Structure formats: C-alpha cells, structure tokens
Amino acid sequence: MTGPISDPYSGTAWIFNQVKAEAPATAETFAWTMDILARIQAACGPYTPSLLHSDVSEGNVIILPDRAVLIDWEYVGAGDPYYDVGDFAEKVKLSSSEEEALLCAYDGVLVPTSLAMARLYRFVSMLREALWSVRAGTTGFTEFDYVSYARACLARMREIAQSSEFADSLHLLESTNQGEMNDLRQRHS
To answer: CATH code at 49?
Structure first.
C-alpha cells in the first residue's frame, strides 16, 4: 500500500530529489518551498497512514446517480487522510466557504484544525504538481507545456503562502496539541 510518492512529505521530497538530479538549476527555484514543506510537516505532526488516492481532481471523479467513484489510482499509497481533502480543494479551486462545507461533511462538523490541515495541504498539492510537471517534462512522455504549468503552480504556491488563511492555519496548528489532531485523523484511517 505504499508508493514512493504518496506521503505528502517524503513523497514530495522524493520528487524534489528526482528534479534535483535531472535539473539542478530548476530545483533551486523550489528551494524556498521545501522550507515551507518542512514547517507544514512539523505543524501537522505525525499521523497514522491511511489509504490515499494522491491525485483527487475533477478528471478522476466519476459522478454516478447514487455515488461518486474515484478512478486513476496510479499514485495510490499511504499518507495523511487530510492530504486528499486539501488536494481536491485546491485542484477544483474551492472557495473558503466551499472548503469549509467540504470539511464539515468530511468530519461531520467543522473542526478548525482539520480545516487548517486541508488549507496547508493545498500548498503541498501545488508543490507536488509543479515538481511532477518539471519531472515529467524531462521524459518527453507527451506533448504538454510542462514549463508553463510548473510556473503557474509556483505562482499559485506563492499566492497560497502569502494568504492570511495559510498564515492563520499554520499558526493554529503550531499551537495545537498533537494528540487532538491524531484523534481526529484516527476517525478517517
């Protein structure tokens, strides 16, 4: 159940190291993001890994009359359950109120720490997308403007990192008892 890139932290670092090996100058562009990633990891604290899709986007969700189905499980693995929530919120560009509704539905009630984790994981989602784009661009796998996509992801990461929601979420988690967050995560394992 563990893939090399499913964990939001070690998986992102793994992709970063792949980029660093292939394109060291490009990797320097991401140096600042790795510092933020480490701070997010410390703020979110340890977790019991659970099954992650690791690429929840509109194109990977099929809506049926009675349920939604996730497809395209190529990045499946173990990680923090709130990563998939934040990844989805970022990829479908949920507003703050939509994000709150999603977390309320996910937890059964709006829990400030879980909302904060999802908001921080939006940054990680864009970081992973940017690094994936740089790495995929070195393979020539398909015709796609990987450079422009990576730049757009970097711009979005800057926007997220400079937002008050991000700063407030980071501050909240840095001052929260890790035991409370572990109890919350256990409900989704």
So the answer is: 3.90.1200.10
